[in-house]
């Protein structure tokens, strides 16, 4: 690993920094210096200086950095919901030691109350692939607006027709603008970032460009992507962002909230396919959930939803793989449950209803996860 040596004033402080080029969110989230910078901003000027400069020169890494920040915040806020796996314990211990977080005091709970709390919170972390399910997290980020200087010419397109219209942007990204909606965008995107402003509703098919993140402004909310497809609805009561493909981060605009701007933090969530977030303007609250009608992410062979005396664990895994959703259930309680059914050409909600009816269970959607409640099945 290439090491970069940097010296800073105030004594003779000298630190060694790794070459973080190409780091994933998981790798950032398990790096000691990154953890210190996220968990204790301002206490280490050397780290603040390094990361500020590094981010400025590596804009393509911003999505990974944002996700890593959310991961660390999730772990620190709810460590009690981590699965009991050795690797995850080691990672949490590393974060706790690095950030000097005290060990949580043990609390006696019953197995049922532990499961119920775990399911209700749905703060699930699988290996080092961290799925952040809380409806909001906080992290530090400098917000930007569409730059109008430096020769940037802004165009405004308003759809005053009764049908959707298609707009091709300078980078070949496609926007489908719904009736009564308005989009403001530069005639030519500047170097380093692509920014548009939306009032109303539009579907975006963003051209992938790692060096230029794509930002959609909707008053209090900023949606940030590299390359993906998603829908944004910006109306008086709320802002709704739903993802079709790829990964999207949705952030509160710090300039729209003085208290957030003063503290240097903004709230945000990360969305993956079939997930959405709704920002209620009156309550100033973000809520993450599944989209109303989740779609299969990739073509699935017909027989993959034909089950004959199949364990529900296998059935749930097939659904998870097809829809990209997390299904939470007690594997021990449902270990003896099997299913014989044809679930082809059936919506996700109907699939879940049929499965639950067959095994005498119920399901609920909490945040963006599906939680199955059941008492188990008799031995086959």
Automatic annotation (TrEMBL):
Recorded superkingdom: Bacteria
Every Protein FecR C-terminal domain range: 305-372
Molecular function GO terms recorded: sigma factor antagonist activity
Name of a matching Pfam family: FecR_C
FecR protein domain ranges (all copies): 166-248
InterPro entries, alphabetized: FecR (IPR006860), FecR_C (IPR032508), Ferrdict_sens_TM (IPR012373)
Protein name per Swiss-Prot or TrEMBL: FecR family protein
UniProt lineage: Bacteria, Pseudomonadati, Bacteroidota, Cytophagia, Cytophagales
């Amino acid at each position: 690993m290439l090491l970069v040596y940097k010296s800073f004033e105030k004594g003779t402080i000298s630190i060694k920094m790794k070459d973080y080029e190409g780091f994933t969110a998981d790798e950032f989230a398990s790096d000691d210096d990154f953890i210190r910078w996220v968990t204790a901003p301002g206490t280490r000027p050397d780290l603040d200086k390094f990361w500020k400069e590094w981010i400025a020169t590596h804009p393509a890494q911003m999505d990974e950095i944002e996700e890593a920040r959310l991961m660390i915040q999730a772990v620190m806020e709810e460590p009690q919901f981590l699965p009991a796996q050795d690797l995850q314990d080691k990672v949490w211990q590393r974060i706790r030691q690095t950030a000097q977080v005290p060990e949580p005091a043990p609390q006696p709970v019953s197995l049922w109350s532990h499961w119920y709390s775990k399911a209700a919170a749905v703060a699930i972390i699988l290996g080092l692939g961290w799925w952040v399910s809380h409806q909001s997290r906080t992290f530090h980020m400098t917000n930007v607006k569409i730059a109008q200087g430096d020769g940037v010419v802004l165009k405004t397109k308003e759809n005053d027709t009764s049908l959707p219209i298609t707009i091709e942007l300078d980078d070949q990204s496609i926007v489908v603008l719904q009736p009564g909606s308005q989009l403001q965008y530069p005639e030519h995107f500047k170097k380093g970032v692509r920014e548009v402003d939306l009032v109303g509703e539009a579907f975006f098919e963003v051209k992938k460009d790692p060096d230029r993140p794509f930002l959609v402004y909707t008053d209090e909310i900023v949606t940030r992507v590299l390359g993906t497809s998603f829908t944004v609805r910006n109306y008086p009561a709320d802002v709704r962002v739903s993802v079709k493909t790829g990964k999207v981060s949705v952030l509160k605009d710090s300039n729209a909230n003085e208290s957030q701007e003063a503290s240097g933090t903004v709230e945000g969530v990360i969305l993956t396919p079939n997930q959405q977030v709704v920002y209620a303007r009156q309550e100033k609250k973000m809520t993450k959930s599944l989209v109303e009608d989740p779609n299969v992410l990739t073509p699935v062979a017909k027989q993959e939803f034909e089950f004959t005396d199949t364990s529900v664990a296998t059935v749930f895994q097939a659904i998870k793989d097809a829809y990209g959703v997390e299904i939470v259930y007690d594997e021990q309680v449902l270990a003896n449950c099997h299913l014989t059914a044809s679930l082809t050409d059936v919506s996700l909600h109907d699939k879940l209803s049929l499965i639950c009816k067959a095994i005498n269970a119920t399901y609920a959607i909490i945040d963006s996860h599906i939680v199955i409640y059941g008492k188990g099945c008799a031995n086959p």
